[in-house]
Amino acid sequence: MDEPEYPDFLWPGEDDQDDAAPRRWPALPGPDPARVAAERRRRIMGVTLTAVVGLGLGAGIAVAYGNVRAGSTPPAVASGGAGASQTPGAGQGAVTGLELVGTVTAVGPSSVTIGGGPAQSVRAAVTSSTRFTGAAHALGAVQVGDRVAAQIVIADGVARVISLRDPAT
């Protein structure tokens, strides 16, 4: 059987080819430069504002904490004691209460010194009204190296032990 013949106009001929360059797609429109710049400025301002607010809050907290700590804590407590309280109206006649946990560094006939480590040592008088609890029932039972908890009152520049407890028991 013979192959059917196709008309020549269905097939491109050699002389029908276009010598033109291939057709290019049109470029997609890019972002608007003014809009991009505005977005960049908005983001930079947001980050800058967040940093400034955070820095301001941090500085304010640090100043407030420093004022509270400096105004209500005696030097012995600030360097390692457990706690303190002071009656209003600092000056002559002011009474400061101090709770101190530390190691006994010296024992005298009527005084005890508590401190150790980085904490400032505190020397306080032991009176007949001092309460002893724990293993030590009198000043004679307290030894250098014992770990104790003490309540101390400082009035008119004189430190007195209110209670002394040996927490080991």
Description:
By secondary structure, this protein is of the alpha+beta class. It folds into 2 domains: 32-72; 77-165, Copper binding periplasmic protein CusF (OB fold (Dihydrolipoamide Acetyltransferase, E2P), Beta Barrel), CATH 2.40.50.320. The protein has 2 helices and 6 strands. Strand 1 and strand 2 form a beta hairpin. Residues 70-90 have low confidence and may be disordered.
Q: State the low-pLDDT regions, or none.
A: 70-90
The run of helices and strands is HHEEEEEE
Shape: rod-shaped
Number of strands: 6
Features:
single chain; 169 residues; alpha+beta; OB fold (Dihydrolipoamide Acetyltransferase, E2P); 33% strand
Annotate the secondary structure layout.
Elements: H1 33-72, H2 75-78, E1 83-86, E2 95-107, E3 111-116, E4 119-133, E5 147-155, E6 158-165
Parallel strand pairs: 4-6
Antiparallel strand pairs: 1-2, 2-3, 2-5, 3-4, 5-6
Write a short abstract of this structure.
This protein has 169 residues and is α+β, with helices and mostly antiparallel strands. Helix content is 26%, strand content 33%.
